[in-house]
Amino acid sequence: MASVTSLSDSVQQHLASALTATLPESAGADPLLRRSDRADYQANGILALAKKAKANPRELATQVVSQVVTGDVIKDIEVSGPGFLNITITDRAIVENLAARYTDVTGRLGVPFAAHPGTTVIDYAQPNVAKEMHVGHLRSAVIGDALVQLLEFAGETVVRRHHIGDWGTQFGMLIQFLDEHPHELDHKAGEVSGEEAMSNLDRLYKAARRLFDSDEEFKTRARRRVVDLQAGEPHTLATWQKFVDESKIYFFSVFEKLDMEVRDPDIVGESGYNDMLAETCRLLEESGVAVRSEGALCVFFDDIKGPDGNRVPLIVQKSDGGYGYAATDLSAIRDRVFNLKANNLLYVVDARQALHFRMVFETARRAGWLNDDVTAFQLAFGTVLGKDGKPFKTREGETVKLEDLLDEAVDRATAVVREKAEKVGLSEQEIVENGRWVGIGAVKYADLSTSAVRDYKFDLDQMVSLNGDTSVYLQYAYARIQSILRKAGEARPAAHPELELAPAERALGLHLDQFAETVLEVAAGYEPHKLAAYLYQLASLLTTFYDQCPVLKAETAEQVENRLFLVDLTARTLHRGMALLGIRTPERL
């Protein structure tokens, strides 16, 4: 089973036939359905059609209603206001549609693949070699990973790229210092933990920086090393590789804590495009896209000017012959378009780099590397703030280390899990494991439930709360359903379309049916916060359902089976939806 036609699509088809019978020239125009407080759906497009046909909207709506066939999908349809159509779905249609999703053997819950999937390169989680990851790296990693899951689920071919900072002048300083003080890093890569590896690198970096700033002769030697590195001198490259390998050990340990898969082949840093830089500059200069200005190779834009009114250029190559970030980013575009054959380039990067990427993308368009068939988009994200609404810092005013933040989240969550552990009968191993999934899930959900472009406050007390819009609330909803299913005894979930549904059952069922269109909309628009909102509303409807509709103590055996079916499908939807956000759902909490 590849997909299930949603109830909204079925209603659209019925309305299209009625519209065509009423207004043949409308060719079944989309009536624009939305959820309504007064009915299951409301059609708003009649007003626009009436204006186009120079007809009275309410009269046209009444004619359309007379042509609608009711009984199988549509239970009732009535004209509302100036020409809206309020539509009520039959109980049978709700249950039958959900049954089709429930029995989907692919595990996709009837979610279709995108109509025209392509190849997307997602650039996300971009740490720097020899530097600790901090809270500023969190959003790129979490948002990027969720988009990988969503796009792959929608059928897109996704190429992951982690554009790490592994090139530049600082490496001359580090390499020269290590050459002169080999005992500072005297173990082989892989012999220490990720935390120890970064601690060693951090200590070495600080020592090298102190010497660089105080010793002019060392500074001169370090700068010569940069030239050796760029020229590919074997010993210098081997030492540089040691720094990269040590850093990767640390990166992998942090990503493992985040419960994210990061594969070594996906890590292609700035150095990966080094051999392309000269050719990129040549192509831009020969095509006239870039010009020489005061010795530097620049691209100018009429609409980008500085405070003095002069145009601000994108500098591709410096006047001393060195290459900047622009040359690397433009070379990466060439590689992704012509070698990886990507249709879409997605960059999950801090909003503060918006101007840089705007200039880079426009330059690539002028060069013909981007066009109507190959697009680039920066998913710019906001800043992580502290409870005080200011950039998140430690009490000492330093940037918060990502590992410390994750460890604290897990500790807080484990305490929350432990409070309920005895009642549920969790073992110590389950408490520890669930504490990890709840803690990491809390951090991810707080990020993903906020629109990427907005800043958000990092408040662990709120994140691990059992109440409100948190991942813990959703995880407990899932675990509660699993508990009910375990207690069901011989009763099994089974759909009963012949039953009349209570209002809370209908509301839950209609929302479950919207999962497919929500997932595809979220994937197409790069908007994981909309999936988080859908899942929170699903858990809220489930709570109302619990309060109003006994499951195991329902009046008849058929009702018990039907309600078990509804909660089981809800659990599967929560599990799938949370997985698409990169969050686990423990079976017992």
From TrEMBL:
The UniProt keywords, alphabetically, are: Aminoacyl-tRNA synthetase, ATP-binding, Cytoplasm, Ligase, Nucleotide-binding, Protein biosynthesis
Q: Which Pfam families match?
A: Arg_tRNA_synt_N, DALR_1, tRNA-synt_1d
**Protein location:** Cytoplasm
The catalytic activity of this protein is classed by the Enzyme Commission as 6.1.1.19
Q: Which residues are the signal sequence here?
A: none
Major subcellular location class: cytoplasm
Question: Which family does the entry's similarity section mention?
Answer: Belongs to the class-I aminoacyl-tRNA synthetase family.
Among NCBIfam families, the record links this protein to: argS
User: What is the protein name for this chain?
Assistant: Arginine--tRNA ligase
Give the taxonomic lineage as stored in the record.
Bacteria, Bacillati, Actinomycetota, Actinomycetes, Kitasatosporales
